[in-house]
Recover the amino acids of this structure.
């Protein structure tokens, strides 16, 4: 009887063991399937971030901050993939695998947040962009996609409200000081650059923050018949800002040593004399209370091509395009040489040149705004105290 019972127990135990083994295999299979799916996602993240890093490096060699960020994301994604591989090798439970992957993903998010929150260095941008007067100029050595003084666009955009308020306050003080008769100070912002470098765009973004009452904008095209009847500085003198104003030149007197030189509109001996004439003219403006901020908006030929194509392809931009844009583009080396000479010959202590990398529009606008603010801060205009008895006038207002 006992033997019969033992025989009955053995099949039952074997059956239970078989069920347990089957369940274990099923659990193991589910774990492998989950880790396989997570690994696929991680591998995809690796490829995407690797492509991002490669693209960033190709498009902007000098944009080190963004390239570093892309590389860090790539490394983090790669670490995630490795973590998942370890999960599969160790045959961890699905929940443990999920926790491990989420831990690495959280590290990526934290790194990105820390990067985005990094403050803009407290630097004087003019010192980074200013050309040393009298020193040789090598435009080819200055990266057009660089962003001196800042790490990324997010940092700049976070600062824009404060910068807008700052430039508005300084402009009001400049205007008020002149209106009160206590100051002859003024600012002249000169924008030069190849076609599509963003002179007009800079005017819209930067000057749009200013009070029109204290702003004077002038875009210089080819000289009119009347202007040609006078010396080349005649039309410039007629448009310099008055006391308390911020003047903006979209192109300027430098066209007469750039286009005139490249297109051979004037004899070389006259071009040579014009450099000295410009220096004397600018020195006279400075002596009369003007702070001159000269900006060369530096773009690459590749970026110019993209912007010209954008003008052709967009009905809203096509009006900006003229066939002469390509004519000038064909003379790119000649224009770069003309700019080099002008920057060298007319970069003085009184009115130095600033080279603003302009491939990135957001940086170009930010840099010019910062240079304008720094110029106003160098003046440090103050509100006039008023030429009346404050107590007496307050009493009169109360009684009125």
């Amino acid at each position: 009887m006992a033997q019969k019972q033992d025989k009955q127990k053995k099949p039952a135990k074997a059956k239970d063991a078989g069920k347990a083994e089957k369940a274990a295999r099923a659990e193991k299979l589910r774990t492998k399937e989950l880790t396989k799916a997570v690994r696929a996602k991680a591998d995809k993240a690796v490829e995407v971030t690797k492509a991002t890093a490669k693209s960033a490096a190709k498009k902007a060699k000098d944009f080190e901050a963004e390239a570093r960020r892309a590389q860090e994301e790539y490394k983090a994604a790669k670490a995630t993939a490795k973590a998942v591989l370890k999960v599969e090798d160790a045959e961890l439970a699905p929940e443990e695998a999920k926790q491990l992957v989420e831990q690495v993903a959280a590290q990526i998010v934290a790194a990105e947040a820390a990067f985005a929150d990094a403050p803009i260095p407290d630097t004087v941008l003019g010192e980074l962009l200013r050309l040393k007067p009298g020193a040789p100029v090598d435009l080819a050595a200055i990266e057009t996609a660089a962003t001196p003084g800042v790490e990324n666009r997010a940092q700049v955009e976070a600062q824009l409200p404060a910068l807008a308020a700052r430039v508005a306050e300084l402009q009001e003080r400049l205007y008020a000081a002149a209106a009160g008769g206590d100051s002859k100070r003024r600012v002249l912002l000169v924008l030069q650059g190849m076609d599509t470098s963003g002179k007009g765009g800079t005017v819209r973004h930067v000057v749009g923050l200013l009070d029109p009452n204290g702003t004077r904008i002038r875009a210089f095209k080819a000289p009119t018949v009347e202007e040609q009847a006078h010396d080349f500085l005649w039309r410039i003198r007629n448009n310099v800002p008055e006391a308390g104003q911020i003047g903006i030149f979209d192109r300027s007197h430098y066209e007469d040593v750039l286009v005139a030189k490249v297109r051979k509109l004037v004899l070389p001996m006259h071009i040579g004399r014009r450099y000295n004439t410009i220096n004397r003219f600018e020195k006279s403006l400075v002596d009369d209370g003007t702070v001159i901020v000269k900006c060369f908006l530096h773009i690459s030929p590749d970026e110019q091509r993209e912007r010209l194509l954008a003008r052709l392809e967009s009905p809203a931009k096509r009006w900006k395009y003229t066939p002469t844009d390509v004519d000038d583009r064909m003379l790119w080396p000649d224009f770069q040489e003309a700019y080099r000479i002008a920057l060298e010959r007319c970069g003085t202590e009184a009115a130095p040149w600033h080279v603003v990398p302009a491939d990135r529009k957001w940086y170009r606008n930010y840099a010019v705004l910062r240079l304008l603010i720094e110029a106003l801060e160098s003046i440090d205009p103050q509100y006039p105290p008023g030429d009346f008895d404050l107590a007496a006038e307050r009493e009169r207002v109360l009684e009125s």
Observations:
- The longest helix spans residues 2-59.
- The two ends are 125 Å apart (CA to CA).
- The chain has 15 helices and five strands.
- The longest strand covers residues 290-298.
